[in-house]
Design a protein that fits this description.
By secondary structure, the chain is an alpha/beta fold. It contains 16 helices and 7 strands.
């Protein structure tokens, strides 16, 4: 019996796969175009409201009436609530420059814009968070997390020797990617956690740690083994950064920064450069994550080092605002209070003994 030929051409699967990719790409472009037109419409509505409030003294009642009328006229649209109309007004007031609007505001989702309006008051920071949202495709939840953890103030603030040991393009990029402090509250550790507890918790929650590290970090391993002339050494955490095209060594310390830490990580970086670094890789970067640091001590420790090293701090518990910190008692005050209470308790005990 002759073999029956296939009903479909041999290249059908490839054709179908490419067709799916084109359709999905078009769907994404269409969604972006719709979002851009919607955000521009909201900005125009907000500008009109803002102008009439200034010229004609429109108040809250007019906004409420406008919201009702728009809902009746466009029942299929859900964006004309009084609250959203006020967001439109605030949006137009915040971004009067149409260049910024077209370059940034109209390219991120409307709800992202609302989050930035609510949580960020400084114009420069607003533009920065819009840029980062666009660059990194942050979801709304991730954007909220980055704002709540003050990423703007932490990004690029690590103490490093990058300017001295790396070429200008890579040194600037590497500096911009590292933070002065890393927020590890998600680990749920107490302040006195041991280094092995910190490392274990980071590995178990690697997805959240990668989010805190930032875009481009790929996890290679923990307690990564290095051998030098028969001796074994273990790197706490090893990553590869796709944007920097280099390995990144992270050493975890649960104490204040000490000068000897820079020597240890310099050794690890040298070994990895020798044994793992490929021809197209850039120089390996070392990051020391410690509980706290003193700027001058770090600068002296890194001076003269030939390898790129960064020193940052981390916290595992929420930071209190300064106004609350000022109201908290000092350690000495607490100790005095404890001693006073203990004295009163002892006095009551003595009274009870005397009574019996």
């Amino acid at each position: 019996m002759p073999k029956q030929s296939s009903l479909f051409p041999d290249d059908y699967d490839d054709f179908f796969r490419h067709l799916k990719e084109r359709i999905r790409s078009t769907q994404i472009k269409a969604a972006l175009a719709v979002n851009q037109e919607l955000v521009l419409l909201y900005w125009q509505i907000g500008r009109e409201i803002l102008q009439r409030q200034k010229e004609e003294g429109w108040g809250a009642k007019v906004i409420d009436r406008l919201a009702r009328d728009l809902k009746i006229e466009f029942p299929e649209m859900t964006g004309f609530s009084p609250r959203n109309l006020n967001y439109m007004r605030s949006f137009a007031e915040a971004y009067s420059d149409e260049v910024i609007l077209h370059q940034l505001g109209a390219k991120i989702p409307w709800k992202h814009n609302c989050v930035i309006l609510d949580k960020v008051k400084d114009p420069e920071q607003r533009i920065w968070y819009m840029q980062k949202t666009l660059e990194n495709s942050w979801s709304r939840n991730i954007l909220v997390h980055q704002i709540d953890t003050a990423l703007y103030n932490r990004q690029g603030g690590a103490l490093t020797n990058f300017q001295e040991v790396l070429p200008a393009p890579q040194s600037d990029l590497a500096q911009s990617l590292l933070k002065s402090e890393y927020n590890l509250e998600f680990l749920g550790l107490h302040e006195r956690a041991l280094e092995r507890d910190l490392e274990r918790a980071l590995v178990e929650r690697m997805q959240k740690f990668l989010l805190e590290l930032g875009v481009g970090f790929a996890f290679v391993g923990s307690q990564y083994r290095l051998e030098v002339e028969g001796d074994e050494f273990f790197v706490d955490l090893l990553f590869y950064h796709l944007g920097l095209s280099c390995f990144v060594v992270i050493e975890l310390k649960t104490t204040d920064f000490k000068p000897e830490y820079s020597g240890q990580i310099n050794f690890y970086v040298n070994v990895i450069d020798e044994k793992l670094r490929r021809q197209h890789d850039n120089p390996t970067i070392g990051i020391i994550l410690c509980r706290s640091k003193k700027k001058s001590v770090v600068e002296y420790a890194l001076r003269g080092m030939s390898q790129p090293i960064s020193v940052s701090t981390y916290r595992t518990t929420a930071a209190l605002p300064d106004e609350f910190k000022e109201k908290l008692p000092s350690i000495e005050d607490l100790q005095h209070e404890i001693e006073s209470v203990a004295a009163v308790v002892e006095e009551f005990k003595q009274d009870d003994l005397s009574a019996t």
